Every structure is written in structure tokens, then in C-alpha cells.
Amino acid sequence: MKRWATLIFIFLYSYCAAQDPAKQKELKAVRTVETPKIDGVLDDACWVKVPIATDFFEIRPLPGRVETKDRRTEMKVLYDDVAIYVYARMYDDKDSVSHELVSRDNIGNADFISIIVDPFYDKMNGNGFFVTAAGVQFDAKYSQVGDEDPNWNAVWESAVKLDDLGWTCEMKIPYSALRFSGKEIQNWGLNFSRRIQRTNIQTFWNFVDPKVNGFINQEGLFTGLKDIKPPLRLSFSPYVSAYVNHYPANIPGVKNTTSRFNGGMDVKYGINNSFTLDMTLVPDFGQVQSDNRILNLTPFEVKFNENRQFFTEGTELFNKGDLFYSKRIGSIPSYYNYSGVGQDDKIIRDQTEAKVLNATKISGRTAKGLGIGIFNAITNSMQTEVEDGAGNVRNVETQPLTNYNILVFDQSLKNNSSATFINTNVLRQGSAYDANVSALLFNLNNKNNKYFINGGAKMSYLRGEESSTSGYSYTLRLGKQSGNFTWNYNQVYADNQFDPSDLGFFTNNNFFDQRIGLGYNIFKPSKWFNEMQSWLNVTYSRRVNPGNYQNTVANGGAYLRFKNLWSAEIDMSYNAKGNDFYEARNGQMYNAPESYGIGLYINPNRAKAYNFGGNVRFFEQQLFGGKEYNFYLFQNFRLNDKIAFGLDLNFNPNYNYVNWVTSQGSQAIFSKYDRRTVENSFDAKYTFTNLMGVTVVLRHYWSDRRNKEFYLLTPNGNLTDYQGPALTGTDRNYNVFNIDLIYTWQFAPGSTLSLSYKDAAETYDSYFMQRYNRNLGGILAAPQNNSLSVKVLYFVDYLDLKKKRKKV
User: Fold this and answer.
1) CA 482 to chain centre
2) How many angstroms separate the most distant Cα atoms in the chain?
3) How far apart are CA 670 and CA 730, in angstroms?
4) What is the three-state SS of 430-471?
5) Which residues touch 642 (CB under 8 Å, ≥6 apart)?
6) Span 746-772, mean pLDDT?
7) What is the DSSP letter of 302?
8) What is the DSSP letter of 24?
9) Which residues of 516-529 are buried (b: 16+ CB within 10 A; e: fewer)?
10) Residue pair 236/39 in contact by the 8 Å Cβ criterion
11) DSSP states along 108-125
């Protein structure tokens, strides 16, 4: 009896230990001589005696709960001299597995399985390889703070199968897709993750606690990889493209229809085990989605999303310190010079984007944790074609040949900490000024990653032919980042000369801001919700020179995810009376009124074939009783796993709002106005296979400004009735219409054929046009810029070429 009790105790202890979420899991590496066939069928003999990784832990909805036996996951990993191989068995009801077909690097409404590896085992950087139940690949890089970079792409193989037990997956991840050391025996960080879409259950092999800050630092261990050598990582991706563009300019001597032929190449080269060179020569970005342009009535620039892959992939090092806004390179330059365009000159053709001639990235991290990044890009000069009063046509250079450069050194420290130096430099040909910005950054965490302190000091230096300026800025942030209750204190300072806008995004300087943030999160489900998050932030701002008060802002809210997988969020904000030094556009102070707002956001269970959600928001200004409403509704309809539609409707009316409208000499004129903004977009996709699909996006945006009364801004910051001559041409009526239709086919690993059709129209009038249908009809009748393009990119791996030569 005593013997049986001992055996039972040992069994229970072993079982409980195996289920302990806090204990790091380990998986022993097994070398194979036989290469498994990547077909999704798990019948290769080499898989038979390989250790199984199972008993995954939920991160949602119930963190720490072990997966059930009937929905369990079984993973195996093999390796040889060229790749690692992954076996995955996901038990489930075959008919319940979600498997929507979408394009590469998207998940859609589908279950997925993934492997995340950290080859240097620094618990700060990793690579994730995901495959959906429809066979769609998604890959990403992970940085030390848990940020996901989905723009990183690698070339690897995968296959899936649905069967009576659920679904299966096999992967082959070649070493050319990874960076690792040349040590004889290696241990890698490892985790697996699975999502069951219909129930929103996500699990990890090694438990990832949502109360702990970071993701890669909560990985398991893959032990005993022996005698693997990093291969020569060299690939070429030459491309050719052709364009036909039609715009009815109907100007004598200017063609309405133009065409061009482009060619270039992308190159990836593994300099050593840790560092990679990425280069694009004469790139072509003509097939990226159009920017969502809006009518901007603020004194600040609008920030657009970057859609060009070279500038989004593998740029985590360069984004440190918020000094890099990649749209500055070619797309939205910060410097324009129209001094060569006279008052009597007529602009025939204005170039708004500069051609990127080449761009290069070198990045990586040494075995001792030193990350090094070098980025360089060159853009061609921009020319504006003008005609003078005598009919003579000439070109005026509005932007010179420009070189953009970034240098980063980022040293990893203990406890997911780091120290960073970053420098950005912009050099322009000729008499235009140059810009240089440097920053020293630090991020320190305690041993259990519970508390943190981070910040940095920055300096900008602008050098022109006649003068130069330098400015300074610093940030300091500390707090508690793990646990149910979190808090932080943030302090940001920038003097009145600090300006990183030549390669970064920047709105204003001359401020000293302090912010306190509080958060309380519940990750353990209750009777009626699965997850709850709440927050409260208060910001107080003053100017640096002189040190007068600017504003005080408070905002708070709560987010709930319910048992039925719907979610709701409520946000509240309050702006106290403040001193606005930017709205007048001339440095004059404006006494900004008190305002407050509230918003309710509803998101559905997106696993449903038809789902809808949206938000309702309300804001009020105390001055003149200004009110703003926002009503947003989105709908998604999935006809089947191949066809899906989406419709977004947004209505945003403003009444009795006040801000700057124009200037008369040194005097700022404000107006009380009504504004209506309507934005509608429709998208559809048809995915033929996991390698081929077509998408279309249609967007119409209409916004206006109808001035009702005009005011003069007085020296004390108040408004008084305007008594000057009648103001005309100050109303606004802005319309944008876009169609983006793109077909892509991955006809070979890493190789794509894409066809793109774009239609764009824009009208900007100084008079108001009533009714939405009249504005839609007006923009459709306006001159349309139509373009049709085809691009073929072919991926060539040097190792594959070498193998073919040996066979010959």
C-alpha cells in the first residue's frame, strides 16, 4: 500500500510539475538524416521517435489553463544541415476549423499554428513563422519590447491538410531565413502558438503571462543543436515593370497618355552570421496602396502610413527614438523650394514625389548583444515645369538631389534592457540646408521585468550657408509595467530650436510636458467578460521659452471583451482652458476654450460570416457651444472562404466650431463654421489559392468648411468681431476619390507577378457644394488620373543556383 501511495504521489507531482505555467519548458533537438516531405501528411518515418511538445497554455480567454485533450496540439521539430522542420498536429472537429483564404502575410478568419525561434537566445529578438489552416503563410520579426514587425518576409515552405482528427501542418525553415551563431552546440529560444478562431482561444507551448511585460522573454528552450553552420545568405530579386498613365490635362504640348518601363533589383546578402545587407536599386513603389488624404484644418502636418515594403521591413532598429519617418524619403519630403517660380509663372506639371534611386540597409546583432544598423537612401531632384507670360516653358528645381542616412548602435543589457545611440543625417546638394539629429537612449528593467525606467537625450543641428541652429530635447519615463495594476510617469522636454523633421515626423517644439498614467487590467475571465482593461492619463504642458502655461488634458476609459467575443470600449476626455500658440499660424496666442468628449466603440465577433460594429462619439467646445459628432459603421461579409466584402461608412458633422481661417498681413482671422465630413470605402477580395488573389478598394472622402462669422484675434488671445473688408474664398469643399485594384500571384517561392489598376481624382474648391450625391457626382466627373501597371519580380537564391550547377 505504501509503495502504491508513493507511486501515485510521484505521478501527481510529475503531472502538476508538467502543468506549472511558471516553469520554463524544454524540447530536445533531434538531428535527422531523412528529409521529411513537406506535404502536410505526417507519415514520414523520421517523425516517429521525435519528442512531442504538447500541453499548451491559454493566454486567452483564461491565462494559464491547459488545453483540453480533444483540442490538444502536438509539435515536433527536426533539423539537419540545411533547415529545421516542423510537425504540427492540431486536434479539432474537422468541420469547425476556420480556413479563410487570404493573401500572404494575412490571417483572416482562420486558425493558425506557429513556431517562434530566438536563435541567439537573448530573450529580446526572434522570428515567427505562422501557417493558417488554409495554408497561408505569415512571418514576422519580434524585438525586445515585444513589438511585431509583420513586414519582414522570408522564403520558406509549408503545407497543411484537414483530416478526421482536425488539421495538420509541416514546415521547412531554411537556415538562410535565420541568423544564428556558428557555435558547435547551440540552445535556441523556442515557443509555439495556436489560435482557434471560432472561440478566440490562443495558446502557447511555454506560458506567456499577459500580466508580464514582453513576449520573447517568456519563451521555452530548444536544446542541443549540434554542428549547424550558417549558410551563405545571398539572394537577388530582379524586377521589370511597365506603366501606362492617362490624365486629361488637355494642355498643348503635354501628352495626356504617357508610358514608361522600369527595371531594378533587390539584393539580400548575409555579411556574416549576424548581419544582413538589404539593397534596392532603382525601386518601383507604384503599386502600393494610395494614401488616405483628408482636408486638414489644423496647423500641423498629417502623418500617413508607410506602405512601401522596403521601408517597413526590418526597420525596428532605425525606429528607435522616433526619429525616422520613412515617408520623408521620396514620398513626403520636408523641403521644397519654389523661389524659382515667379508670380506670373503658370505651373504646368508639379512633381510632388522624389524618385528613390537606391536604398540600403545593414542590420544585425552580435553574439554579445550589440545591434548595429546602417541605413542610406538617395533621392533624385524634383523638377516643376512652369510657363512664363511669354509662353516659354522651363524646369525649376524644387528639391535637390538628397542623401538620407541613419546610424544605430543598440546594446542589449540584462533583464531585457538596452542602451542606444542613433544618428540621422540629411545632406542636400547645392545651397539647401543640411540636417543632423543625434540621440542617446536607455531602457532599464528590473530582474522580474516589473518596473522600468527609460528615456533619452536628443540634439538637432541644421546647417545652412548663412546660418545654423541647434536644439535639444529629452524624455524620461518610469513606472510599473507588469501586473494587474500599472502606472507610469512621463516627462518630455523640447526647446524652441529642436527640429528632427527632415527625416522624422515632427509637429512642434518649445514644450515641457508631464504625464501620469494609471492602468488596471483583469485578464482572468468573470461570469460575463473574458478580459477588462482600464486607464487614466493626465498631461500638463508648459512652454520652455517663455515658460507659460499651454494646456491640461485628462483622458480615461475602459475596454471589455465579453463571453460572446464581442468587445466594447468607452473613452472620455477633458481639455481645460489653455493657451494655443500654434493655431494662429503666426506665433500669436489663442485662448483655447474648455472642451470635453466621450466615445463608445463596439467590435463584433469577427469569426461570424457577417459582422458589424462601429462607434459613436461626441465632443463639445465651450466657446459658442461648438459641437462635434461622429458616427462610424463598418460591415464585413464573407460569402465563403474565397470571397469577402467590407463597407465602412463614416459621418462626422461639426457645428459652431472655431479656428483659424486666413491672415491679413500680421493679423490672424478666425471663423465660426460648420463642417461636414463623409468618408465611405468599399473593399472586396477574391482569393483563388493561397498564392493568388485580387483585391479592390474604393474610397470617397468629402469634407467642407462653411464659415458663418469672422473674428479678429486680439493681442490678449481673445476673439473680437471682424470689422474689415468682406472675406471671400474662405469656404472649403474637398473631395478625393480612389480606386486601387491589385492582382498578385506568387508563381514561385519569393517570386511574384502583380497587376495594378489605379484611379485617382481630387477637387479642392473655395465654395460649398450641398448634398453628398452632388459631391460624389462632381468628383466622378472631374479629371481622373488612371494608371495600369504590371510588375514581375523573380527571387533567385544563390544556394539554389549552386546546387543546379553541381547537377549539371
Assistant:
1) 24
2) 112
3) 11
4) CCCCEEEEEEEEEEEECCCCCEEEEEEEEEEEEECCCCEEEE
5) 101, 686, 687, 688
6) 92
7) P
8) P
9) ebbbebebebeeeb
10) no
11) -SB-EEEEEEETT--SS-
- Cell numbers at 224, concatenated: 542541443
The residue ranges of DSSP E strands in 495-626, in sequence order, are 511-522, 529-542, 549-562, 567-575, 578-580, 590-592, 595-603, 610-621
Q: What is the residue extent of each domain of the chain?
A: 23-226, 582-808
The three grid cell numbers given for residue 591, joined into one nine-digit string: 485662448
- When the candidates are 3.40.250.10, 3.90.1170.50, 3.40.50.2300, 2.60.40.1190, the CATH number that belongs to 23-226 is 2.60.40.1190
Task: Please write down the long-range contacts of 606-613, taking CB distance under 8 Å and 24 or more positions apart.
Answer: 606/109, 606/636, 607/98, 607/109, 607/197, 607/198, 607/200, 607/565, 609/637, 609/638, 609/639, 610/635, 610/636, 610/637, 610/638, 611/635, 611/636, 612/636
Amino acid of residue 466: E
Which position has the higher pLDDT, 699 or 182?
699
Pull the grid cell for residue 226. Answer: 549540434
C-alpha cell at 504: 522624422
Q: Please list the residues that pair with 236 across neighbouring strands.
A: 267, 796
Q: How far is CA 724 from CA 129, 657, 706, in A?
A: 66, 21, 19
If DSSP codes are grouped into helix, strand and coil, which group holds residue 18? helix
Taking the alpha carbons at both ends of the chain, their separation in whole angstroms is 72
Q: How far is the C-alpha of 554 from the C-alpha of 595, rounded, in Å?
A: 11
Instruction: List, for residues 419-468, the tens digit of each pLDDT value.
Output: 999 999 999 999 899 999 999 999 999 988 899 999 999 999 999 888 89
Tell which residue, 755, 803, 761, 801, has the closest CA to residue 782.
Answer: 761
Do 786 and 759 form a contact (C-beta atoms < 8 A)? yes
For 354, counting Cβ atoms within 10 Å of its Cβ (0-12 exposed, 13-18 middle, 19+ buried), the class is buried
Grid cell at residue 175: 537556415
At 680, which amino acid appears? N
Please state, as a whole number, how many other Cβ atoms lie within 10 Å of the Cβ of residue 686: 15
**Nearest residue to 102 (alpha-carbon basis) of 149, 67, 136:** 136
CB 419 within 8 A of CB 453: no
Per-residue pLDDT tens over the stretch 582-594: 999 998 999 999 9
Give the H/E segment covering residue 397: strand 393-399
